[in-house]
Amino acid sequence: MRIAVASGKGGTGKTTIATSLALSIAGGDQADDSEVAGPISRLLFLDCDVEAPNAHLFLNPHFRERVEVGLLVPEVDESLCTYCRRCAEVCEYNAIAVAEECVLIFPELCHGCGSCTLNCPEGAISEVPRVMGVLEAGPTPHGFQFARGLMNVGEAMAVPIIRALKKWDMGLDGENTQVEEGSVFWETIIVDVPPGTTCPVVEAVRGADFALLVTEPTPFGLHDLRLMVEVVSELGIPAGVVINRDGTGYEEMERFCKEADLPVMLRIPLEQRIAEGTARRKPLIFICPEYEKYLREMYERIIEIVKGAVR
Ligand code: SF4
Ligand code: SF4
Questions:
Q1: Which of 120, 126, 127 to mutate to test ligand 1, by most ligand atoms within 8 A of the CB atom?
Q2: Which atom of ligand 2 lies nearest, measured to the CA of 72?
């Protein structure tokens, strides 16, 4: 079961919900941060918000694995090059340009598709690795595994890092623990999706069994929820909504959910204790313990919806 926790809009409380959902599934263990749980359950928390990952602040993982990730980009041997321009013609991303007697490569624009290498008639192009970020993983004190991607400062493309994170075999106990092929290993994967509705979001949500869309009852919240609903329906993923900071009196949100046949899975009221607690990096279920039960019930409802969708 893979649940993507997403929000078209940043700052809606997506990570607050994702982290406490994971904690509730794990049993709401308030272990000391210095402790590392013994056996790791088959629950994985995946922070795909690679530009600004922050779920670790709530879950305190002890990172034990770290790998660099990136793309293979072209390198030209100009002693073989005839400056025929074929490589520039086939590059859809304008990442390579050929001047009179000079080939210019713009690595930050390169998507690593390999088309230039394949099409070079002189065999003048080879591919060299370019590091764009790192993947890190380790157990949390709450008895489940945590993994995240972290993009290098100044990088423009988050998708290759998210893709690598989803393909990463963390190698626990010699098992195949890839996210995309590892559903055999992982019983539940909670994916913290980047904010927005652009390519990194699509990459993070792709393959999920259910999308939990966190929103707030404001005109901006509704606008971005609509966009997110379009994304998940395009990907064919069933979805439900969490209305955070509920109680503002904005009725349009309810109307939209009803018309779009989107189940409201949970409402969290606008409360000072929650705002203060999360600002102190305290998970929601440790601020309001009653939410452990609500989130657990929501998880069971998600399982029922997914079962119904695949029947
Ligand atoms: S395709 Fe090959 S030979 Fe032609 S300009 Fe590019 S690198 Fe040079
Ligand atoms: S690998 Fe693809 S994106 Fe990169 S320069 Fe070559 S053709 Fe362009």
A1: 120
A2: 1
